[in-house]
C-alpha cells in the first residue's frame, strides 16, 4: 500500500512540472497517512469507474440504432444474475473500504498523540513532544510556545522529528488550521479548544493557511511553517530572545498588550486588508491561551482544569455587551 | 420611515454594478414596452400570472430558472477571471468586499434559484401527466409556491443594486455571519431570500406528495408509477423532512442578528457547532433532493431512446429509497475536521461510502438499459452518456472524501469544489437539461432544433473537464476555497486553464440560448416539420404523458386513463387502446386566482422591509396577506366545469392530426 502512491503521477500534475503537489508529497507521517488513504481509495474506485466508463462507451457504440446487426431484446428488463452482480460488487468494494475507513480514522485521529510506531519510523523513538498553542485571529495566526515562553505571529517554527501537540482556539470567527504538507486540519472555534498532532519528518518551508472563510482578510491569513533540525530550532529560540532581532516585539505579550495584537486591521470596500507581518515575542504571560478560551465562557476554561482566568483580561475589542449570558456552556 | 435604508445603500460608485443595472434596466424596460405595445397585459395577467395550471406554472419556473442560471453563471465567470488575474501581488479586479458577495451569490443562486427552480418545473410539468391526474392536489397552493420562489429570487437580485449581498458563502456559517462580524444587510438579504423560497419549496413538497398518493389514475399501483414520479416522490419526502430544519436554522440566525440572541454567537453560550449540524442536516439531504429527480429523468430517457423498458425497475425504486434514507444520516461528513471523536467520524464516513452502493446500482441499471437496445442519440440521450462518465468520476472523488483520514487534507479545498461541481453539473445539471429538451415538445407542441442541443452538450462536456479537472489539481496542491488572491506559482497555470474552461462552458450556454430562440422562431413561423402532431414526439414514449396531444389541453386527460401496468402507454401501443368506457363528462377544474401574485407581492414587501428594518411595511405586508387569505377562504366561486363540447372538439382535432400524421408516414 505504501508503494501505491508511486503510481499516482499518472495525474498530469506531476507530469507537467516538477512543482510540489503538497498533498502527494507530504513531509510527515500524518500527511503520508492522509495521502495513502486517498491514493488507496482512488485505486480501488478506479477498478469500478474505469470499467463503467469503458462499458458505457462500448454499449453506446455497439447498440447504436444504426447498427442493425446487434442483438435487440425489446422487452428484456430483468436478470437475476446481473442484479446480484450490480449489488454485490459495489457492496464488496465498500465493505473493504469501510474496513480501511475504520482503521485509518482511529489510527490517524487528530486527537491522538503521534504514535511510537511513527516516531520509530522517522528515527526518533524517544522524542519529547513540543506543545504549541494556536489562536486564530482576524486575519492572522498567533502561535504560543508555552514551554518556551515565546510566541510568534504568522510564522510557525518547529523542530523536525518532534511530535507537535497543537491546542487550537479562535479569538474571532471559526476557521481551520491547516498545513497541507504536514497533514490533517482541525477547526479553531472561539471558547473551545481543539487538538491536533502533527510531525515534520524533514526540514522545509511549508505553506500554512486558514482553510475556512473568515472575512475580507481571509486570503492573506497565511503563515509559513518552517521545520528545521533540533539544533537549528534551538538557535532560533535563542534568536527570539535577541533584542537586536528586527522581528522581535519590544514588549511582552500579556493581558495588557494582547488586545493591540488581536485587533483586526482596517477594512475597506476597495482593497483587501493588509496582511499582518511576522512578529516574535520573547516573553509571553503564562496562561494566555487558557484565558482566551475562558473569556467566551464567562471566565471558566472549557475543560474546567488548568483554569487560570486573568481578572484584568479585556473581554473583546469587537463590540459591546459580550458577556451578557449567565453561565458556562458546559462544553 | 425607511429603517436602515438610505441613499448611500445604492452602490452607484461601483462601475460593474452600474453597468449591470443599466443592462437589466434596458432589457426590463424593453420587455415592459413590448408587452404594452402589443397590448398583452390583460392576456399576461389572465392566462399566466394568475394561473393555477401546473403546466403553465412549470413554464414560468423554467423561465425563472434559466434567467437565474445566466445570473449565477455570470458570477462564475467573474470568479474564474478574478483568480486567473489575482496572482503574485496583482489584486485582480474584484476586491474581497465584492468577490465574497460574488461567490456567496453564485452558490445561493445556483442551488436555490436555478437547480431547485428547474427541479420544481419538472415536478410540475411531468408528475401529474405521468400519473394521469388533471392537476396537482392543491392548485392554488402550487401558484403560491411559485410566487414565493419568484419573489425570493427577485429579492436576491435587488441586493445587487440596493445594499449588498451576503459575503459568507452559500450556507452563511456563523460566527462570521453574526452581527458582530457582519453588520451590513448582506446576510439579512440571504436569510430572507432563503426563508421565503423555503416556504415555496415546502408547499411544493406537500402538494406533490399528496398528488402522488391521492391522484393516481385508476389502476395505477405504486409499482406502476414511472421512475421519474418515484424520484419526485422521494425527493419531496426529503424536502418535507429537512426544509423545516433549514427554516429553523435561518430563524435562529435571524434572532441572533435582529434581537441579540445567542444561538450561534461566540459568547453567551452560543455554538457554531450547533449551526453546522443543523444546516448540514438540511444541506446534505438537499443535494439528494436535487439529484434524485435527475436520476428519474435519466431513467425515463434511457428507456425511451434505447427502445427497451428500464432495466431493473424495482431495483431502481429500492435504490432510490435507500439513498433517501442514507442521505439523511451522513451530514457530519461536511465537518470531519471539527474535532469529533474517531467513532463518530467513522460512522458517518462509512454511511457516506454506502451511498455509493445504490448509486452505483443505478449507473449499472442505465448501462444495462442500453445493453441490447436500439440506442438513438438524439439530444437528450447525449446528456446521459456524458452524465454516466462524468458522474462516475464525481462519485469516485466523493468516496475519497468520505474517508475522514483523507478528508482531513482535502476538506474545504478546491478538490472539494471540483468534486461537488462534478456531481452537480455532471449529474443534476446534465439531468435537468436533458429533461427540459426531452419534454419540451410536450410542453409547447413543437420541437427544438436538435443540432444546437448537441452542440450545447459538447461544449458543456468538454468545458466541464477543462474547468474543473485543474481545480482537483490545485486542491491537491493545498489551495483552499474562497481565496480572492494568491501568490503560489504552482497554482497559477491551473487556474488559467480553468478560466479557459469557463468560456467553453459559456459557449454551451450560448448554444442553449440559441436553441430556445430558434425554437420560438420556428413556432412563430409555424415551421411544418417542427410541429409535434402525434404527441409521442420521440416515437417511443412509454409513459402516460406521451399519450396526450402536444401541447396538453388545460384539463390534461379528456377521460381518466385506466392503467394496466408499468409503462402504460407502451402497453397501449402494443395491445391497442381500450375503447372508452364512459361517455365524456364535464370536467371539474379550478379557476385561476390572483391570490398567488398578491401574496407574492406581500412577501416581497415583507422580505425587503425585514432586510432594512422598515417595520411598518412588514406589518402592512402581513395584514394584507392575512386579509387576502381570509377573503379567499370566504370565496366560493373558485371552480368551473369544462363543457363536453369543448372536450369533444379537442378530441376530434387531435384525432384528425393523428390521422394526418399517420397518412404522412
From TrEMBL, chain B:
<dbReference type="InterPro" id="IPR000883">
    <property type="entry name" value="Cyt_C_Oxase_1"/>
</dbReference>
<dbReference type="Pfam" id="PF00115">
    <property type="entry name" value="COX1"/>
</dbReference>
<keyword id="KW-0249">Electron transport</keyword>
<keyword id="KW-0813">Transport</keyword>
<comment type="similarity">
    <text>Belongs to the heme-copper respiratory oxidase family.</text>
</comment>
<feature type="transmembrane region" description="Helical">
    <location>
        <begin position="103"/>
        <end position="127"/>
    </location>
</feature>
<keyword id="KW-0472">Membrane</keyword>
<feature type="transmembrane region" description="Helical">
    <location>
        <begin position="16"/>
        <end position="38"/>
    </location>
</feature>
<feature type="transmembrane region" description="Helical">
    <location>
        <begin position="455"/>
        <end position="474"/>
    </location>
</feature>
<keyword id="KW-0349">Heme</keyword>
<keyword id="KW-0408">Iron</keyword>
<feature type="transmembrane region" description="Helical">
    <location>
        <begin position="227"/>
        <end position="254"/>
    </location>
</feature>
<feature type="transmembrane region" description="Helical">
    <location>
        <begin position="59"/>
        <end position="83"/>
    </location>
</feature>
<feature type="domain" description="Cytochrome oxidase subunit I profile">
    <location>
        <begin position="39"/>
        <end position="564"/>
    </location>
</feature>
<protein>
    <submittedName>
        <fullName>Cytochrome o ubiquinol oxidase subunit I</fullName>
    </submittedName>
</protein>
<feature type="transmembrane region" description="Helical">
    <location>
        <begin position="310"/>
        <end position="334"/>
    </location>
</feature>
<keyword id="KW-0679">Respiratory chain</keyword>
<feature type="transmembrane region" description="Helical">
    <location>
        <begin position="346"/>
        <end position="368"/>
    </location>
</feature>
<keyword id="KW-0479">Metal-binding</keyword>
<keyword id="KW-0812">Transmembrane</keyword>
<dbReference type="InterPro" id="IPR023616">
    <property type="entry name" value="Cyt_c_oxase-like_su1_dom"/>
</dbReference>
<feature type="transmembrane region" description="Helical">
    <location>
        <begin position="494"/>
        <end position="521"/>
    </location>
</feature>
<feature type="transmembrane region" description="Helical">
    <location>
        <begin position="139"/>
        <end position="162"/>
    </location>
</feature>
<feature type="transmembrane region" description="Helical">
    <location>
        <begin position="598"/>
        <end position="627"/>
    </location>
</feature>
<dbReference type="InterPro" id="IPR036927">
    <property type="entry name" value="Cyt_c_oxase-like_su1_sf"/>
</dbReference>
<keyword id="KW-1133">Transmembrane helix</keyword>
<feature type="transmembrane region" description="Helical">
    <location>
        <begin position="189"/>
        <end position="215"/>
    </location>
</feature>
<feature type="transmembrane region" description="Helical">
    <location>
        <begin position="380"/>
        <end position="402"/>
    </location>
</feature>
<keyword id="KW-0186">Copper</keyword>
<feature type="transmembrane region" description="Helical">
    <location>
        <begin position="414"/>
        <end position="434"/>
    </location>
</feature>
<feature type="transmembrane region" description="Helical">
    <location>
        <begin position="274"/>
        <end position="298"/>
    </location>
</feature>
<dbReference type="InterPro" id="IPR014207">
    <property type="entry name" value="Cyt_c_ubiqinol_oxidase_su1"/>
</dbReference>
Amino acid at each position: 500500500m505504501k508503494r501505491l502512491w508511486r503510481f499516482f503521477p499518472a495525474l498530469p500534475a506531476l507530469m507537467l512540472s516538477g512543482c510540489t503537489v503538497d498533498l502527494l508529497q507530504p513531509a510527515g507521517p500524518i500527511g503520508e497517512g492522509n495521502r495513502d488513504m486517498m491514493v488507496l481509495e482512488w485505486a480501488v474506485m478506479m477498478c469500478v469507474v474505469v470499467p463503467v466508463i469503458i462499458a458505457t462507451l462500448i454499449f453506446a457504440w455497439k447498440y447504436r440504432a444504426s447498427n442493425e446487426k446487434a442483438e435487440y431484446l425489446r422487452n428484456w428488463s430483468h436478470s437475476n444474475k446481473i442484479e446480484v452482480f450490480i449489488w454485490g460488487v459495489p457492496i464488496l468494494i465498500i465493505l473493504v473500504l469501510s474496513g480501511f475507513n475504520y482503521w485509518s480514522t482511529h489510527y490517524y485521529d487528530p486527537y491522538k498523540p503521534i504514535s511510537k510506531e511513527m516516531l520509530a519510523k522517522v528515527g526518533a523513538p524517544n522524542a519529547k513532544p513540543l506543545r504549541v498553542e494556536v489562536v486564530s485571529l482576524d486575519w492572522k495566526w498567533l502561535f504560543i510556545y508555552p514551554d518556551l515562553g515565546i510566541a510568534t505571529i504568522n510564522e510557525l517554527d518547529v523542530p523536525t522529528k518532534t511530535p507537535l501537540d497543537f491546542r487550537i482556539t479562535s479569538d474571532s470567527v471559526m476557521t481551520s488550521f491547516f498545513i497541507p504538507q504536514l497533514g490533517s486540519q482541525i477547526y479553531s472555534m472561539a471558547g473551545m479548544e481543539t487538538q491536533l498532532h502533527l510531525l515534520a519528518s524533514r526540514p522545509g518551508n511549508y505553506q500554512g493557511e486558514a482553510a475556512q472563510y473568515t472575512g475580507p482578510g481571509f486570503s492573506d491569513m497565511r503563515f509559513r511553517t518552517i521545520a528545521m533540525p533540533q539544533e537549528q530550532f534551538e538557535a532560533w529560540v535563542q534568536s527570539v530572545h535577541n533584542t537586536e532581532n528586527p522581528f522581535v516585539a519590544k514588549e511582552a505579550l500579556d493581558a495588557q498588550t494582547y488586545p493591540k495584537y488581536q485587533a483586526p486591521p482596517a477594512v475597506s470596500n476597495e482593497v483587501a486588508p493588509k496582511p499582518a507581518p511576522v512578529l516574535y515575542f520573547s516573553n509571553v504571560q503564562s496562561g494566555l491561551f487558557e484565558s482566551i478560551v475562558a473569556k467566551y465562557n464567562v471566565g471558566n476554561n472549557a475543560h474546567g482544569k488548568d483554569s487560570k482566568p486573568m481578572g484584568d483580561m479585556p473581554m473583546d475589542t469587537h463590540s459591546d455587551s459580550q458577556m451578557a449570558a449567565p453561565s458556562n456552556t458546559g462544553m | 420611515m425607511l429603517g436602515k435604508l438610505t441613499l448611500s445603500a445604492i452602490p452607484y460608485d461601483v462601475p460593474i454594478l452600474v453597468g449591470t443595472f443599466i443592462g437589466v434596466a434596458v432589457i426590463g424596460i424593453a420587455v415592459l414596452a413590448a408587452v404594452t405595445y402589443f397590448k398583452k397585459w390583460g392576456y399576461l395577467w389572465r392566462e399566466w400570472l394568475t394561473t393555477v395550471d401546473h403546466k403553465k406554472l412549470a413554464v414560468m419556473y423554467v423561465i425563472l430558472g434559466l434567467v437565474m442560471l445566466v445570473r449565477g453563471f455570470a458570477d462564475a465567470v467573474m470568479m474564474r477571471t478574478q483568480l486567473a488575474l489575482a496572482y503574485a501581488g496583482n489584486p485582480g479586479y474584484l476586491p474581497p468586499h465584492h468577490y465574497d458577495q460574488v461567490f456567496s451569490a453564485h452558490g445561493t443562486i445556483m442551488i436555490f434559484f436555478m437547480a431547485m427552480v428547474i427541479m420544481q418545473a419538472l415536478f410540475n410539468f411531468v408528475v401529474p401527466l405521468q400519473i394521469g391526474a388533471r392537476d396537482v392536489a392543491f392548485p392554488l397552493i402550487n401558484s403560491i409556491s411559485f410566487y414565493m420562489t419568484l419573489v425570493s429570487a427577485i429579492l436576491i437580485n435587488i441586493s445587487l443594486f440596493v445594499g449588498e449581498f451576503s459575503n459568507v458563502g452559500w450556507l452563511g456559517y456563523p460566527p462570521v455571519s453574526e452581527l458582530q462580524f457582519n453588520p451590513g444587510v448582506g446576510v439579512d438579504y440571504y436569510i430572507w431570500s432563503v426563508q421565503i423560497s423555503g416556504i415555496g419549496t415546502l408547499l411544493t413538497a406537500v402538494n406533490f406528495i399528496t398528488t402522488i398518493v391521492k391522484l393516481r389514475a385508476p389502476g395505477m399501483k405504486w409499482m406502476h408509477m414511472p421512475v421519474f414520479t418515484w424520484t419526485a416522490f422521494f425527493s419531496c419526502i426529503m424536502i418535507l423532512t429537512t426544509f423545516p430544519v433549514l427554516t429553523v436554522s435561518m430563524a435562529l440566525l435571524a434572532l441572533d442578528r435582529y434581537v441579540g440572541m445567542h444561538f450561534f454567537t461566540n459568547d453567551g453560550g452560543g455554538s457554531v457547532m450547533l449551526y453546522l449540524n443543523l444546516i448540514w442536516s438540511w444541506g446534505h439531504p438537499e443535494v439528494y433532493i436535487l439529484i434524485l429527480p435527475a436520476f428519474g429523468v435519466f431513467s425515463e430517457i434511457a428507456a425511451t431512446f434505447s427502445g427497451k423498458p428500464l432495466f431493473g425497475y424495482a431495483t431502481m425504486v429500492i435504490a432510490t429509497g435507500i439513498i433517501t434514507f442514507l442521505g439523511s444520516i451522513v451530514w457530519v461528513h461536511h465537518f470531519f475536521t471539527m474535532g469529533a471523536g474517531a467513532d463518530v467520524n467513522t460512522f458517518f464516513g462509512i454511511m457516506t461510502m454506502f451511498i455509493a452502493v445504490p448509486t452505483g446500482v443505478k449507473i449499472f441499471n442505465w448501462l444495462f438499459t442500453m445493453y441490447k437496445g436500439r440506442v438513438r442519440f438524439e439530444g437528450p440521450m447525449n446528456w446521459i452518456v456524458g452524465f454516466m462518465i462524468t458522474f462516475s468520476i464525481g462519485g469516485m472523488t466523493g468516496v475519497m472524501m468520505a474517508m475522514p483520514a483523507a478528508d482531513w487534507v482535502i476538506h474545504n479545498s478546491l478538490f472539494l469544489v471540483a468534486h461537488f461541481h462534478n456531481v452537480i453539473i455532471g449529474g443534476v445539471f446534465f439531468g435537468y437539461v436533458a429533461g427540459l429538451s426531452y419534454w419540451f415538445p410536450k410542453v409547447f407542441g413543437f420541437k427544438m432544433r436538435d443540432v444546437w442541443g448537441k452542440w450545447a452538450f459538447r461544449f458543456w462536456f468538454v468545458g466541464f473537464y477543462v474547468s474543473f479537472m485543474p481545480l482537483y489539481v490545485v486542491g491537491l496542491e493545498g489551495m483552499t476555497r474562497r481565496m480572492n488572491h494568491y501568490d503560489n506559482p504552482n497554482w497559477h497555470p491551473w487556474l488559467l486553464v480553468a478560466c479557459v474552461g469557463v468560456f467553453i462552458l459559456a459557449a454551451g450556454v450560448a448554444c442553449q440560448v440559441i436553441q430556445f430562440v430558434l425554437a420560438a422562431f420556428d413556432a412563430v413561423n409555424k415551421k411544418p416539420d417542427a410541429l409535434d402532431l402525434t404527441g409521442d414526439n420521440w416515437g417511443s414514449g412509454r409513459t402516460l404523458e406521451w399519450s396526450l396531444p402536444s401541447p396538453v389541453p388545460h384539463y390534461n386527460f379528456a377521460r381518466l386513463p385506466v392503467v394496466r401496468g408499468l409503462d402504460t402507454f407502451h402497453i397501449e401501443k402494443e395491445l391497442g387502446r381500450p375503447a372508452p368506457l364512459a361517455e365524456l363528462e364535464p370536467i371539474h377544474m379550478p379557476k385561476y386566482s390572483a391570490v398567488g401574485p398578491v401574496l407574492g407581492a406581500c412577501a416581497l414587501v415583507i422580505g425587503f422591509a425585514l432586510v432594512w428594518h422598515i417595520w411598518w411595511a412588514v406589518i402592512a405586508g402581513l395584514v394584507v396577506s392575512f386579509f387576502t387569505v381570509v377573503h379567499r377562504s370566504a370565496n366560493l366561486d373558485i371552480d368551473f366545469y369544462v363543457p363536453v363540447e369543448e372536450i369533444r372538439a379537442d378530441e376530434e382535432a387531435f384525432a384528425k392530426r393523428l390521422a394526418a400524421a399517420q397518412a404522412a408516414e
